[in-house]
Amino acid sequence: MKNLIILILQISLFSCTNASGKEKEVANSASTEIVIKGEAQGTTYTVKYLAEDYEEGLKERFDQLLNEIDLSMSTYVPNSKISRLNNGDTIELDDLFLSVYKLSFNVNIETKGAFDPTIGPLIIAWGFDFANPQKMDSAIVNSLLESSGFDQFVVKGKQMYRTNDAARINFNAVAQGYSVDVMAQMLDKMNIENYYIELGGELKVKGKNKFGDWWVIGIDRPDGKNLERNLAQRISLENSAMATSGNYRNFYEMDGKRYSHTLNPKTGYPAENSLLSATVITNDCGTADALATAFMVMGKGKIISYLEQHPNTKAYLIFSSKDGEFETYVTPNLKQYLLNN
């Protein structure tokens, strides 16, 4: 939906693939680079890790985990917990759902409302959830805003329900990042020290690649005609998670006007600012995912203020200048990891 394609820039020379979607690549060490690929959440995932041999059944375990996440919080699954909640049921919360809810609430507070998964009614009305867009005006938008907000939902122990029949919650802007974190936890429990996990463009890395280097990740140049996936920058990523949001490909047109796919939770309208893409690097991918979305709403001044108050967060931002040229802002703590300088 909102994620840019992230490229691994280390190319393996020797590989073999079998029908189950697993690859083995010979590394210049005692370990082998194992590659697992699959499909989930309407996109694809890739896992690379170094080990003596492939762990049998690991791909199936990843697939089962991702299916459990869908059954918990995918609005595209009719009988998922989130779908039943949005249809008026009181649901029993699982750990996955509760973790994402708490993460979303915290980022909502930190960004002063720029990230808000409770704007489900607006997402549907604008046609961003595979729904047909409505004709929008200020009266409709204001009415839908009244049905948004965390106060529309109640959590009591392990149960959750809504207090407004029109309320809807939507975790699509954070669930993929969180999924990457849970996949990483699975490898951590296996004592895997070196891995790369990517799902729909959101990713997390630990340790080093098969060449003994930090994982190198590319950020797309934000050009709507960039079919060749030209890179704006390469980053050496060290034990971190990374997510990128951008509006230059994600938009639709109605009545001759182009609308961004990122909604401003405060106005109820698609976000309008000069930010073309936001890449965020943090310890966990769920937070990076949510922040990247929030940054697309906040605008340059508020983003920089946020980053100054959160010095452990790294960011690479690409803006459009008044004359249509690209401008970048890089947090000081990220500059040493840039490879195109």
Characterize the structure shown.
Helix 1 packs antiparallel against helix 6 (175-189), helix 3 (95-110) packs parallel to helix 7 and helix 6 (175-189) runs antiparallel to helix 7 (285-298). The chain is globular and about 60 Å long. Helices cover 27% and strands 28% of the residues. Residues 1-20, 25-29 and 251-259 have low confidence and may be disordered. The strands form four sheets. A ten-stranded antiparallel beta sheet has the order 2-3-4-5-9-10-13-16-17-18. A three-stranded antiparallel beta sheet has the order 1-11-12, with no helix packed on it. Strands 6-8-7 form a three-stranded antiparallel beta sheet. With 341 residues, the protein is of the alpha+beta class.
What helical percentage do the residues reach?
25-40%
Structural class, from helix and strand content? alpha+beta
Largest sheet: 10 strands, antiparallel
Classify the oligomer: single chain
Point out poorly predicted stretches: 1-20, 25-29, 251-259
Proportion of residues in extended strands = 25-35%
Mean pLDDT: 86
CATH architecture of one domain, please?
Orthogonal Bundle
CATH superfamily of one domain: ApbE-like superfamily
Brief sketch in words of this structure:
The protein is 27% helix and 28% strand. The chain has 341 residues and is an alpha+beta fold.
